[in-house]
Protein 1
Amino acid sequence: MSFDLNLGLGMSNLGGGEDNNYDVVIIGGGPAGASAAIYTARADLRTLVIDKGLTAGALGITGKISNYPGVPGPVTGAELVEIMRAQAESFGAKFITDKVVGVDISGERKMVMAGTGAFYTKVIMLATGSMGRTSVVKGEEEFLGRGVSYCATCDGAFFRNQTVAVIGNNDEALEEALFLTKFAAKVHLVVPTPELKAREALAAEATTHPKIEVQLGTRLKEIVGNGQVAGVRVHPRGGDEQTLPVTGAFVYLQGGKPITDYLMAQLETEPNGCLVVDKEMQTTVPGVFAIGDLLCTHIKQAVIAAADGVIAAVAADKYIHGRKAVQTDWK
Ligand SMILES: Cc1cc2nc3c(=O)[nH]c(=O)nc-3n(C[C@H](O)[C@H](O)[C@H](O)COP(=O)(O)OP(=O)(O)OC[C@H]3O[C@@H](n4cnc5c(N)ncnc54)[C@H](O)[C@@H]3O)c2cc1C
């Protein structure tokens, strides 16, 4: 996947004003990112967590958790993440719902580009998990930037009074579909599963919105067009294929691959594409850390992701304050 960072900049806040400056920006608010935020906020570091949607992450979609230490359960994964986020917020961390589409890690002052604007920071933590897509549908790459998008916040304004399709079933897809109703005349919500897998309130809002038409149990087969997107070919379960005439296709499908597209190959990886980190979770660029399922060499469990976040948070504090030894006397 790739993103055109030029798209949507008209809507962005690129000024780098005081409100957009942080000590730590964490990309991804699952157990890795939320746990890191608990520790960085507790250490008085100005902390922002940018997350594209609770049910866009592995824990957020998990129905029952019973093995997270200290939380006997069963709780839903979403409930567990919300507990962690609330704990981080209680220490001063700020959470926003947005999708990160790019980063600039070339200088000491680093930049994180999200759909709503740019954020500046001393430390970046990558905690985007491994729900990335493993394949693309026919036409997706051909029409990328010509009707195909992965960021309604960035590109939605280009589709004023047009008909678009949003493909996905999670919080992210629904948030984006609702955002698109500000501009588009009509939004087809193409849901690959028989049911939505999003927060109840969000699902209720999206499914009752007069501009959104929901098609459950419907697979995206192809994006068609001629130079620009002209339609999406879809297959409803048990029905006949049809082509929905749309000028935009916003794709939010998921798979099992580490999500690193927004890094645009700025960080060193192993031959298998996995990010290289040291024992403090720091990547090959000082001040950039990677934690959780995003890292390949991992037992994929919430407690491991959370522990990664803590290790990185302590190291980030050391990095910011130029300390030689790790500070352990936080109360
Ligand atoms: C079906 C299933 C069942 C599981 N059951 C258990 C279990 O019982 N016990 C257990 O301990 N573990 C379980 N796991 C594993 C556990 O969920 C993961 O190990 C854990 O969630 C990893 O945490 P993470 O923070 O690294 O990633 P995630 O939980 O995937 O969180 C990543 C976050 O990053 C956000 N994000 C991604 N890209 C962007 C972007 N570009 N911009 C902004 N935000 C972004 C996502 O919205 C998401 O919230 C299960 C996983 C699955 C899939």
Note: Helices lie at 31-42, 77-90, 152-155, 171-180, 200-207, 302-321.
Protein 2
Amino acid sequence: MKARNRKGIRSAKDIHAGELAVRGGTPVRDELAKPWPAWPQPGEKEWRERIEPALKKVYLSGCEGLPHPAADAFAGRFAHYCGAAHGRMVASGTTAVAAALAAVLDLHAGDDAGEVILPDYTFIATASAAIDRGARLVFVDVDPRTFTMDPASFEAAIVPGRTRAVVPVHILGHPADMARITALANAHGIQVIEDAAQAHGAQCDLGRTGALGHAAAFSFQSSKNLTCGEGGLVTTSDPAIIDRVAAFMDVGRDPQGYRWDYPRLGWNYRPSEYLAALLNVRLDDLEGQIAHRARMAALLDERLAAIPGVTPPARGPWCRRHAYHLYAVLLDPAAFAGRSRDDIVAAVNAEGVPCSAGYREPLSATPALREHLRRHGDSFRAMPCPNARRICDHSLWFGQNLLLADEPDMNDIVAAVAKVQRAFAADPQRGHDGD
Ligand SMILES: Cc1ncc(COP(=O)(O)O)c(C=O)c1O
């Protein structure tokens, strides 16, 4: 039976309390009446008082690009925030990973970068940026609770003489176990490049992300917790590395050299000054937003844990601060009467709570990488990665913007998940439309 008749009028049965919205019942949250916080958060007052003056300053300066004083000033400020000595803004997070790798390994165009180890649970750019720099990839498994690189799997993947770099990813905003990873890397002479694209302001026992390896890559793409639409940044405390990053992103120039000399091969991955001005304003808000997200995450942790089959995200003992780029729970399908994760996602979305499955495959299994392997037989290898597979099969992601809402909104998230779990457990056979 359909949930609504042709005129869209609900029957008494449809309004029955507890009926899933995906089956035509009333959603937990009316998203039109109560929209979730937008990301980024636009506002007339914000524009007038903070954004417009910052952009106007760039405009009136007459300098919108080279020699990028605003980008350099922001990069220095952000590096300092991370606890690193130097920063360089680039066009994207993907560029930042590639530039960091090239600079740390002192790669020239066409060089064989050797083997680079990375986790099998991450965004495609971690891999594609390394492939772009001539790396052969080695995928390793992740910790089953924090989803970050498993140091034991990393250690098992090391081949002396072949492994040149490791790229731990602070995935979803949770810092990787950098103490163990850097200890192993140091023991084997392996360079460490943090992929911190999702982890602005996260912290582990060694310090803040961006200052935990030889260099780190950040993204300011539109979904990120610090954004200017598109952009990236490399941090490091090694002056030689930052000079090589500068050459990589600015046609090979020596930042202290003559403009028309090109000591290295490089490309144009320079940012616009306007982007740096925007980031400079928004960096002022980052700490407050991190604290707010953490408070909301703690509420969710406590309340979602009470729902059968739902495991809230864990923090590793090394984690001092989770940046919550994403809030991810693990689902036990048995508690949802075996319903597919896609069904669960659709049902929670219909309750007015946006969520997604996130990465649905370990990176090494994606078509792009399978094709790369087919064409180039030695281009990558993968260690056994059962944890990455399980996480891909069972996770449910909520975006960081939801965590910028308040306690009653967190209760809507909990109510939606609880309602879906109860309904599926009670009535596993029914489809979405009540048929
Ligand atoms: C883990 C990770 N690495 C790298 C990137 C690449 O950043 P960008 O999209 O700015 O190129 C992203 C962005 O989504 C990411 O999540």
Note: The chain has two domains: 65-281, 285-375+382-426.
